[in-house]
Design a protein that fits this description.
This protein has 3 domains: 91 residues, Winged helix-like DNA-binding domain superfamily/Winged helix DNA-binding domain (Arc Repressor Mutant, subunit A, Orthogonal Bundle); 131 residues, Aspartate Aminotransferase, domain 1 (Alpha-Beta Complex), CATH 3.90.1150.10; 234 residues, Type I PLP-dependent aspartate aminotransferase-like (Major domain) (Aspartate Aminotransferase, domain 2, 3-Layer(aba) Sandwich), CATH 3.40.640. The N and C termini lie far apart (87 Å). The chain is α/β, with parallel strands linked by helices and 535 residues long. The longest helix is centred in the C-terminal third of the chain and has 28 residues. The chain is built from 18 helices and 17 strands. A hairpin with a 3-residue loop joins strand 2 and strand 3.
Length: 535
């Protein structure tokens, strides 16, 4: 039953709530938490009409915006709903509705798992290597810092090219935002993002085959915050998570904060391997799959549309949530990129991440998450806990940029430049590399993936490369578990075409120097009877 008037009992209970100046939480959080407890305890029944915002503000001596923020938090948690022209009502039905309603994978506990064996019949009680939050790149980055020398060419960071940044266009967009938009846009806010921007993001996805509306979009402060929010919502302490090997190391580090156990899934030129994923899903029932499905970092692959159905079916069989990272999908050089996995999903288990930073400029710090229903509610609540809203000025400037003719012009120029830089480095390396060193020419993105002979170490090679005046990123941090130490990444986004031959030449000198060291070591081993194995 719905009550159209606020009864005295409801007003009395809410008026008795106390906000404390010494409480470190913002006033709107205190107010939302106190009302939520009344709802959860059954003091405010389903259908109860809550006081209007002005009345709440007056009862507790707070600003109108504080009352509005409190109601927004309650709505994000599914406890209340607003009805145009009528007011705000309690929508809580049962205990299941109190918790953020998450996708199916989040509603169960996973059972303890065992790895099959190690080939000798021995079973492990801890099947996956669990990294400490600091260990993935800490040692590698320390080695890079120690190896850096004046004049070195740094192909170790996946940076974009500053000359592609549409700064003049954005200067005008920011100016128009400050001059033309009302001062109210600079106020504190609690929302899912600028509605015009959310609609523009939804339209981008619809153009790629997704069934999505602005209500399915949450604006966030870059892809890194998006990763933090999905981890907060969909991963519990100690969960089992699957990911490609190799994949984006910052994503792995974000999940590592939950002390997860990892299942590695192989990847090839068409993205995640279906057979590898199906086997991993059936054997270990991961709670979440993280898949970098477009211009994959570090291999540059795109997930083929032909694999969508089997990947989704395997995830559905074990009730798994898929976190799809599409941050670099526009950086496709050999034709149009395939549609995202999100476009093929009909069950609401895929959560998509996208960012404008790589395509425009990194300091913009605006991205979005696309998710359906219960998953979106949980993500919105997590966003409110994190920082309430993403900078409105940047959102409004971005809206103006997207509504202009500049994006198409910028995308053509950026794609052309990065394609030329990819080709220049690939052609230069092809003249330098020996047959036992394999290079993956990427279909998109900003990185070249290199595999050295199996017995070589990329970290050892880095010492020789630094001496030759070149820095790269060893591949170990990119692996969820069992890192391939003979792999490395060369990033060409900020490398001018004219410098590609010199970069390849320095890399070639490093390879020859390291190969000579390896041959010498092998000769010493063979000639020393103390270390020659008995026959």
């Amino acid at each position: 039953m719905v009550m159209d008037r606020v009864n005295k009992n409801t007003r009395g209970k809410i008026s008795q709530l106390r906000l404390h100046a010494r409480d470190r939480r913002p006033l709107y959080e205190q107010l939302a938490h106190a009302i939520a407890e009344l709802i959860r305890d059954g003091e405010l029944a389903e259908g109860t009409r809550l006081p209007a915002l002005r009345e709440i503000a007056k009862l507790h001596g707070v600003a109108l915006v504080t009352a509005s923020q409190a109601y927004e938090v309650l709505a994000a948690e599914g406890l209340v709903s607003s009805r145009t022209g009528r007011g705000t009502f309690v929508s809580f039905k049962d205990q299941a509705a109190v918790q953020p309603a998450l996708p199916p994978a989040l509603g169960r506990r996973h059972r303890p798992l065992l790895q099959s064996d190690d080939g000798a019949g021995r079973e492990w009680t801890q099947p996956y290597k669990v990294f400490s939050p600091q260990s993935r790149r800490y040692e590698t980055f320390e080695l890079l810092r120690a190896s850096a020398r004046p004049g070195a060419m740094a192909l170790s960071a996946g940076h974009t090219a500053p000359e592609t940044y549409p700064l003049a266009d954005f200067a005008e967009c920011f100016a128009r935002t400050f001059l033309d938009d009302p001062p109210a846009i600079h106020q504190y806010r609690v929302d899912r993002g600028d509605v015009t921007l959310r609609e523009a993001c939804a339209e981008r996805l619809r153009a790629r085959g997704a069934d999505v509306t602005a209500d399915d979009i949450l604006i966030v402060s870059g892809a890194q915050q998006a990763l933090s929010l999905v981890t907060d919502c969909f991963v519990r302490e100690g969960d089992v998570v699957a990911a490609e090997a190799p994949t984006y190391f910052s994503a792995l580090e974000t999940f590592d904060q939950r002390h997860v156990s990892w299942v590695s899934v192989s990847v090839d030129r068409d993205g995640i391997s279906v057979d590898s994923f199906v086997n991993a899903a059936a054997k270990f029932s991961p709670r979440v799959l993280y898949v970098n499905s477009a211009a994959q970092n570090p291999t540059g692959s795109f997930l083929a549309r032909s694999r969508h159905r089997q990947v989704l079916a395997a995830a559905e069989r074990v009730n798994m949530t898929i976190v799809e990272d599409q941050t670099c999908w526009q950086l496709s050089y050999d034709g149009e990129p395939p549609p995202p996995l999100f476009a093929s999903d009909r069950s609401g288990r895929v959560v998509l991440i996208e960012s404008f930073s790589k395509m425009l400029f990194p300091s913009l710090r605006v991205g979005f998450i696309a998710a359906k229903g219960a998953a979106m509610n949980a993500l919105y609540a997590a966003k409110l806990r994190a920082d309430s809203f993403t900078t409105t000025v940047s959102q409004r400037a971005l809206v103006r940029f997207l509504q202009s003719k500049a994006p198409a012009r910028h995308l053509r120029a950026a794609r052309s430049l990065y394609r030329r830089r990819r080709d220049a480095l690939a052609e230069s390396l092809a003249r330098t590399l020996t047959p036992d060193v394999r290079m993956t020419v990427p279909a998109g993105g900003l990185n070249m993936w290199i595999e050295l002979p199996a017995q070589w170490s990329a970290r050892e090679l880095l010492t020789h490369a630094a001496a030759a005046g070149l820095l790269f990123l060893p591949g170990s941090p990119f692996y969820p578990t069992q890192p391939a130490t003979n792999t490395l990444r060369l990033s060409y986004g900020a490398l001018p075409e004219s410098q590609a031959p010199e970069a390849a030449a320095r890399f070639g000198r490093a390879l020859r120097s390291y190969a000579a060291t390896q041959r010498k070591k092998s000769t010493l081993t063979a000639s020393d009877p103390a270390i020659t194995p008995a026959v």
